[in-house]
């Protein structure tokens, strides 16, 4: 498959509304799903199974299964790990680890993940000079994507400070979900070589909440609060007023447009039923990483966000694009974090 055709096919499911957004931008309504499973052998004799899950550049997870299973994930501002010792928030490096192992996503959705993309040429790779595109990874470092002479891609090179280059080469290309994808990947970190033999590569569109349905939330308040925020955004693109009510506390306090009022979860459902009857939300983008705080009591907190909503009026077809900032109050009720109110403002058009 020619390079241009592969790129066109790989990005066929991008949203129909094009926005100028900062490098961080992460769409909570993304329907992208890239999941894989591979049997891995290492040059030092180790073996394990690896499973990856990718929706956006800040919603990704990797599980490694040998004698036990360890789970590594990035979700918005949070990185977390689940293993035999339990669940814990993790250092920033875990974000790079979880995203860096999304090899198929980096191959096929390069422009969605990296920023400051620019071409390069005549770089030695895989036994000869190569060219392609390179860009900055969201959590530090640079990734290079090498194009092959036949129009396919040769592989990736990761460049991190004070670390030897990590080369990833693609082999055994097969058709999956109408796309060509490698089913054998070799990773050389200059110390060991990892052979990934894939038993499953699935590239498809799914509901915006698929990642949360697939990956059980850890018992960590910042992660659960972030999921609540993203689900509320996704409910807009789904046009699901019932979901908005289900994610809302029985009584909430709202500050908006110079007013202060209370609302019940039933009223929230009815209000958004009217909103979704008028407006078709197609993207709801976090422009900046949300700021999340939790009280020492562990049952109340807040999330400060800066988002951009885009779509079109259902009756006229006129497009809309609005940038908002708000603080959402959250409360843990019967073990579940719920929206307890917000104070919001919209950026002037």
Describe this entry's structure for a reader.
With 349 residues, the chain is α+β, with helices and mostly antiparallel strands. 20% of the residues lie in helices and 52% in strands. It is built from eight helices and 21 strands. It has helices spanning 3-10, 93-100, 103-108, 110-113, 210-214, 221-238, 241-246, 265-278, and strands at residues 26-27, 32-42, 47-56, 59-65, 69-75, 78-83, 86-89, 115-125, 128-136, 142-147, 153-159, 166-176, 179-188, 193-205, 248-256, 259-264, 279-286, 291-294, 300-313, 319-333, 336-346. The strands form two sheets. Strands 7-6-5-4-3-2-14-13-12-11-10-9-8 form a 13-stranded antiparallel beta sheet. Strands 1, 15, 16, 17, 18, 19, 20 and 21 form an eight-stranded mixed beta sheet that branches. It is globular. Mean pLDDT is 92; it is low at 1-21.
Q: SS-based structural class?
A: alpha+beta
Q: Largest beta sheet: what is the strand line-up? A: 7-6-5-4-3-2-14-13-12-11-10-9-8
List the helices and strands in order. HEEEEEEEHHHEEEEEEEHHHEEHEEEEE
Number of helices: 8
| Main sheet properties | 13 strands, antiparallel
Q: Strand-residue fraction?
A: over 45%
Which stretches of 5+ consecutive residues score pLDDT under 50? Answer: 1-21
Query: What would the principal axes of the Cα set say about the shape?
Result: globular
Q: Rg from C-alpha positions?
A: 21 Å
- Helical content, roughly? 10-25%
According to DSSP, the number of beta strands is: 21
Mean pLDDT: 92
> In angstroms, what separates the terminal alpha carbons?
44 Å
